[in-house]
């Protein structure tokens, strides 16, 4: 456990170093371009100006974005929604940071037109950086492999991971109150929404790993973002050139054309439904 915590900490430090480096790259690029009126600054003042802004933006992202993933009211939202909310939250302290940095070089005055331009700049720049921050930081950490062990050689020879450990990983992350009867899986950004006979929850893992976790269950992938248990389907319906599965928990799951023949073999011919 201690070795795992050490490895996890090392991976976290590496990832944060990458995100801080991206912030500095943003700063260097905008300083070079003289973006948002900073071309009027002296070269060293311009570099310092953007470095202060993006280091502040990075620090706010470290605090804000992880909270948006775990806060119950926001954790189920998409990445785009989290970025938009994060940009709105961080824009308040960033306004004061940017105002102080702008006034320190003696070229900014707090008049309405200047304030409006500053707010727009904060939203554009902050939103772009937070998008990259969330995209990179929310990826699941790869499983640690000890060098020189039989496991490391097996991984080199065969990239696929045994389904038993992955199945345990998926089931162990399910809240006990949701039971163990998995109805279907839906991919949402870096998360997988697991629907059971009782309810549903979001789990941070790759969809490919989640599919491995249900390999022992009789079911079928029906879409690039959906897997469905065979026993969960009430009927297969055809809407023109598209098809959907009606599930016993009330969900309607799309069936894409590459998986349609397999769906028909499992759940019979599709019932045609008139399209208004």
Automatic annotation (TrEMBL):
Q: Name the residues that span the membrane.
A: 47-71, 83-103, 115-133
Q: Could you tell me which residue ranges the HTH LytTR-type domain spans?
A: 180-269
Q: What InterPro entries does its record include? A: LytTR_DNA-bd_dom
Per the database entry, which stretches of residues form a coiled coil? Answer: none
One Pfam family named in its UniProt record:
LytTR
- GO MF annotations, alphabetized: DNA binding
The alphabetized UniProt keywords are: Membrane, Transmembrane, Transmembrane helix
Know the name of this protein? Response regulator receiver protein
Species for this entry? Sphingobium chlorophenolicum L-1
């Amino acid at each position: 456990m201690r070795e795992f915590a050490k490895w996890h900490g090392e991976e976290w430090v590496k990832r944060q170093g990458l995100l801080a480096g991206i912030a500095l790259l943003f700063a260097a690029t905008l300083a070079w371009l003289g973006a948002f009126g900073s071309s009027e600054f002296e070269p060293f003042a311009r570099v310092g100006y953007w470095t202060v802004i993006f280091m502040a933006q990075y620090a706010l992202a470290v605090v804000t974005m992880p909270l948006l993933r775990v806060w119950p009211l926001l954790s189920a939202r998409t990445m785009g929604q989290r970025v938009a909310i994060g940009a709105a939250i961080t824009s308040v302290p960033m306004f004061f940071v940017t105002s102080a940095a702008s006034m320190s070089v003696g070229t900014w005055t707090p008049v309405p037109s200047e304030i409006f331009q500053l707010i727009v700049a904060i939203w554009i720049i902050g939103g772009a950086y937070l998008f990259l921050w969330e995209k990179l930081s929310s990826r699941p950490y790869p499983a640690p492999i000890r060098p020189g062990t039989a496991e490391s050689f097996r991984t080199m020879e065969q990239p696929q991971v045994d389904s038993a450990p992955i199945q345990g990983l998926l089931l162990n992350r399910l809240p006990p109150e949701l039971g163990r009867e998995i109805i279907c899986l839906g991919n949402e950004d870096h998360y997988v929404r697991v629907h059971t006979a009782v309810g549903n929850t979001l789990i941070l893992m790759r969809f490919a790993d989640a599919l491995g976790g249900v390999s022992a269950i009789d079911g079928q992938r029906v879409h690039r973002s959906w897997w469905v248990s065979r026993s969960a389907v009430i009927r297969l319906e055809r809407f023109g050139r598209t098809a959907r599965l009606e599930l016993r928990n009330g969900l309607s799951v799309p069936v894409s054309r590459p998986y349609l023949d397999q769906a028909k073999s499992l759940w019979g011919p599709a019932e045609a439904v008139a399209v208004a």
